[in-house]
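## Example pair
The file below holds two records. Each record gives the amino-acid sequence first, followed by its structure token line.
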Amino acid sequence: MVAGVVSALELLRIMKENNIDNYYPVEIAVMNNEEGVRFGIPVSNSRAMVGLIEEGELDNIKDKDGISLRKAIIDFGITPNLANAKRTKNSIKAFIELHIEQGPVLEHNNKKIGIVETIVGFDKYSVKFIGQSGHAGTTPMANRKDALVAASEFILAVNNVVKEVGLGTVGTVGELNLTPNASNVIPNYVQLSVDIRSTENDNLQKSYEKLVKEIETIKKQRNVDIEMKRTLRIDPVYMSKEMIDIMECIANKLNLPYMRMNSGAIHDAMVMANIAPAAMIFVPSKGGLSHHPDEWTEYIDLKRGIELMLYTLLELCKRG
């Protein structure tokens, strides 16, 4: 988020200091909560801007401590007003988002700019494994209903399924809770989250169908109950072809080493595409690191991204 905001501010500074005229007003939209970790609802800022959050959700959506989204907003000294936040379709000429790549693709390909074609869609599931607790020493292996063993086999199945589906499909189990979580007791309950991502809805569906089959097999082999529920679905979104072509032309003129690529992370641009043509620019992440203390993007790479964003904006203004 910081790189995008700083880059947008620098772009406006350049325009002001050089008296650059623009036919359309240029605004900076500063958004947070893109990944939705606290409340489980990603890209909530842009969702509010395009009218995809209802008034009741501000009270119904709560974090793990029971704090509602509305209260959290108020606690930050802000009055939640969805009507003020909402923008209507065609009220925005174009939306451009600059973001660090958060991955190693640009660096591995020795490119300095990523022009995003598609932002992945994803399914998020909550999966529960219900077994039976027992003494770790006195319960024979053949008589166990070990929820954690079943969950472990499922985690491996997620890894194998997305590899079978292929075509850039990825799957992650990043959250796991078990009870009673004691060293001398067989776990009787496990809850985990599954994140499946792809640029194609068909691949998401294929992954789901294969996981359902894997669940049936594990249930029989491990004698446990398994419940899988989809908690979130976001469809893949294609960026504006016109804006992609403009950025590609400008990158060539500026001799910027670039490549077309997809985004494996969700971004606000995919939501803003509901009401306006949208585009994304990626700049390299050193070592491909993100969500890590050593996350870093070189200033010179930000400069390249800002140049591409500036000339793209000016070209869009020319076209009226």
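Second record, same layout:
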Amino acid sequence: MKKLLIINILICASFWASAQIIFTDFENGSLTNFSTNGATGLGFNNEHVKSGTKALEWTAENGKKLIVTNLNIPANDVNKNASAGAELFIYNAEPSTDRLIFEFTDKAGNVKRTGTMLLNFKGWRDYHRNYKKDYNNGELMLGSDRFLLNECRITYLQGPGSSGTKKFYFDNFTFIGDTETRQPGPHMALDYQHFFQEDNAAEDPLGSYLKKPSSLVIPVATPEELTGLQTVKSIYTRGTGPVDPSALLAAETYVNNCGIGRNVDGSIKGRGMLGISNPDTLVLVSTHIQSLARAAQFNGDVNAKSKLLLFTEYILDQGIAEGGRNDMVTNSYTNVRAFPLGFLEALPLYTEPMRTDVINLLKWSNDYNKIYELNPTPGQNTDFLYLKVTFLMEIACALPSADEAVNDLKFIKYFLERNTDISQGDRDGIKPDGTGFHHTSNQVRYLYAFGGWVERAYSLKGTPFKVNKAAYDNMAFAFKNMFLQSSRGGLYSNAASGRVPFPASLPVSQTQLRQLVEIGGDIVGSSFEPDLASFYNYTYNVDFYGVAKGDFDNFYTSNYSNLGVLKRGNWTASMKGFNTIFKGTEIYPTENRYGRYQSYGALEILYNGSLEDTGYSLNGAGWDWNYMPGTTSVVLPFTELQPKTNNASEWQELDFSGALSLGRNGIFGMNFSQLDKGYYTPSSLKFKKSVFAFDNLLICLGSDISVGNNQGSVVSNLFQAISTTATPTMYVNSTVPQTGTLTVATL
């Protein structure tokens, strides 16, 4: 109980450090340091709070200021990159053309930082900026511009159509020390250009939001387009199901604990909600909305519907709304997928204006307005393509205006097409050689995004919104590249697997390849596109489509992935390196910890069938990571194979690594000098190696192999096989799996 009491005391207080004001939530009831130059004074109110039981109330007059004095925040704190953030919560009762001007001054009263907050929202929003990063056109402020922050002034300025006074509520003022990622909303649109874009930031929802042209004209949909809209809607109409009684009870309890009620003026009130940017909180809120919606729709539960509508109004008011910090990073797959679900299931129960408010929330949190960008730089984030495009289509189908829905489906079609544009450098997407990129390299494991693209494009087949031939050709090019790296649509190399080694199958399916064939057929006016249909028949050794199997037993190069591939009959030889630009491996805290040598000139022979048929036991059980097939490596204890850091990617010092094709034959070469990035004790490994691939013969040559620092013996490896039995069954230069006795040989 003592701990709880102490926590409560801390929460309900202003934080002071060496006479500087860091934070206040106004729970102490003191107006010390707060004043206004207007005729009406300041006070406290419990009608609208962000936490606790009090918020500062200001009845503002046009041109008057709310002033916070004697902040006394040292210049060194204001100049810290990571922690020089301020977050001030403001409640606005109704959207308007008005604005608030924020000024931060030094001891002498000189204004050092200025920002504008548009009052184009209803409910709670934050003024959230970093003094060091967010006031200089996206550039860091110079150290010479640091200052002792002494005063904050907030000026109310009326816009066209406004008059009289306006009441605002303020709560949870953090003047310094905020470290969270800023995610400005439309209320910060005038200052968007000043916000620093963090390399590891969440999605940029305001940047996406601003892509919609203000002059956009929505044409009247044609009968053909309206028919196409109904076809697409039939695919993206989300159904509902039964609710688990325990989930419904949890939702009802959560809503009750929010203490939601009404003020005298009819506005919503309740306990303040601070975790509006926390992914777990956001998903929890959506889950409870889903439970209430299911009970209302599936069970006819009137009480659940009442709670759903009340709770939705409350969370919108608290800032889980358009312009809130609810656009989650796309590497958080589970949260990104889960957050929209409850709201989408509840949409049929909402009436206006709440339904539009929820659609705007979904648009915002899914960067919907990206669809309006006409000329994006090729190489868009494939995680976004994989995770969010389904929601974009579902949101478009949910729009109340059929004309608007048709218009947006046209933009989504265009967006899908732009996501197949050939990209350059280390950006995501499809490269000039057909290679697919994510995380700055060709890691086949991540190319499930291409399968997602196919499913979305397939849903538009036969409608006015179908993708064009150029987009189809680019995606077919990428699919061919991916499948040609594999053993007839099955295994692909461990060297191309990224941070999840020993892949058991391609990340795209046979069904998705068939869908792509039929997308092409729809474009050319047939049931299938003949070229890719021939490739499909070759890949799966079938006569599914009425065209001859193509002959793809050739040597292929993909130099954006430092890759050469020889295909013959039932086997595929994959030769993989890396260089100064394209990395050879990716290591995460709990994934691929021993995968350092993954692409050190790897040569893998992949047979049709399972991992075990090729000699790779599932998930690499029992694998000695020193001996990657085809690689040249330094044999180290497993403790030395692990990087010293949580994350590690491998690049090298030299550029030369790639392959040349002579049609059915070809060569692969790699010139290697190990790059010391501090992840390991350096071994200064160097080598040159080549693979000459002729007919069914692979000639492997190595030269100038050296190692330093007495780190271990150097080996060049041909093959390593793992089995859980003494008499494994696998392919060994054969057309069918062989059973024999496992032996150990060192060359």
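Notes on the second record: The first strand starts at residue 15 and ends at 17. Residues 279-298 form the longest helix (20 residues).
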